[in-house]
């Protein structure tokens, strides 16, 4: 097992034309003693496997750019990446290594590289200036300073504030859309002073009211979210006639 770059250095001197270097499952914790040292070795290296090595700094990942013909990198299971999500790992590595075409056995498309580089800018954009990597400044020169992505909450709305109309009076009521029509009737008993058995409910979607009019809420077991109720919509309560 390789434990230090000094051992790799000797290997490079013995085999300067090496095209593939497999350093997986080693205790190697850094790449090179200096940039000059790394740049002199493995001038024909096209593929390097560092799976399950001990690399724990982004500076070591950046040094892979010093191999002039490097095309493929394998970097799974290293300490540096343990606390990153899968998307962060792949995007940050791709953005730091502009010349490689294959990462962890998967080809990097042109579109993926653009997305990764833009992700890289946004990932670091709010960090202190003194901690921004050199690659950040290079990419900002290329893409410019990007706007943060808008955060969109795609979870379904769980509550709504609706206008309850009854005998000329209007009251705003906060309802749970996870409840059923029967639950809503129970909630409205104290609002309209009617027994649930004597209520007839009509739902009005304000956005399409003119086109479709009110919809009677006939089925007690139907969930309220199935009506697509939103804030500001109306529930009209009409007493049942005997």
CATH topology of the largest domain: Leucine-rich repeat, LRR (right-handed beta-alpha superhelix)
**Oligomer description:** single chain
Helix content: 25-40%
Roughly what fraction of the amino acids lie in strands? 15-25%
Largest sheet: 5 strands, mixed
What is the CATH domain class of the largest domain?
A: Alpha Beta
Helical run tally: 8
- Please tell me the total number of domains: 2
Return the structural class: alpha/beta
| C-alpha Rg (nearest Å) | 31 Å
SSE string, helices as H and strands as E: HEHEHEHEEHHEEHEHEE
Work out the number of β strands: 10
CATH superfamily placement of the largest domain: Ribonuclease Inhibitor
Shape: rod-shaped
Mean pLDDT equals: 89
CATH architectural type of the largest domain? Alpha-Beta Horseshoe
Keywords: Leucine-rich repeat, Nucleus, Repeat
Protein name: Tubulin-specific chaperone cofactor E-like protein
Pfam families: LRR_9 (PF14580), Ubiquitin_2 (PF14560)
Subcellular location: Nucleus
Can you offer a commentary on this structure?
The protein is an alpha/beta fold and 242 residues long. β4 (102-103) and β5 form a beta hairpin. The mean pLDDT is 89. It folds into two domains: 5-143, Ribonuclease Inhibitor (Leucine-rich repeat, LRR (right-handed beta-alpha superhelix), Alpha-Beta Horseshoe), CATH 3.80.10.10; 159-239, Phosphatidylinositol 3-kinase Catalytic Subunit, Chain A, domain 1 (Ubiquitin-like (UB roll)). The longest helix is centred in the middle third of the chain and has 15 residues, at 110-124. The protein has eight helices and ten strands. α4 (86-96) crosses α5 (110-124) and α5 crosses α6. The strands form two sheets. Strands 1-2-3-4-5 form a five-stranded mixed sheet, covered by helices on one side. A five-stranded mixed sheet has the order 7-6-10-8-9, with helices on one face. The chain starts with a helix and ends with a strand. Helix content is 31%, strand content 18%.
């Amino acid at each position: 097992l390789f434990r230090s770059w000094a051992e790799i250095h000797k290997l490079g001197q013995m085999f300067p034309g090496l095209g593939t270097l497999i350093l997986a499952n080693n205790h190697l914790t850094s790449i090179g003693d200096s940039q000059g040292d790394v740049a002199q070795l493995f001038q024909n290296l096209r593929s390097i496997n560092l799976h399950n090595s001990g690399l724990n700094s982004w500076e070591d990942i950046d040094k892979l750019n010093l191999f002039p013909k490097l095309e493929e990198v394998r970097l799974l299971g290293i300490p540096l990446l343990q606390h990153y999500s899968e998307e962060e790992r792949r995007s940050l590595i791709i953005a730091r290594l502009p010349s490689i075409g294959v990462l962890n056995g998967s080809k990097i498309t042109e579109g993926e590289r653009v997305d990764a580089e833009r992700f890289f800018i946004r990932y670091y954009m709010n960090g202190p200036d003194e901690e921004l990597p050199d690659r950040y400044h290079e990419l900002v020169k290329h893409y410019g300073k990007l706007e943060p992505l808008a955060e969109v909450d795609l979870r379904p709305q769980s509550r709504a504030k609706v206008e309850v109309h009854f005998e000329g009076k209007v009251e705003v009521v906060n309802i749970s859309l996870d409840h059923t029509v029967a639950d809503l009737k129970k909630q409205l008993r104290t609002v309209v002073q009617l027994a649930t058995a004597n209520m007839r409910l009509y739902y009005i979607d304000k956005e399409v009211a003119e086109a479709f009019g009110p919809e009677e809420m006939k089925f007690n077991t139907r969930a309220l979210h199935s009506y697509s109720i939103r804030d500001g919509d109306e529930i009209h309560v009409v007493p049942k006639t005997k």
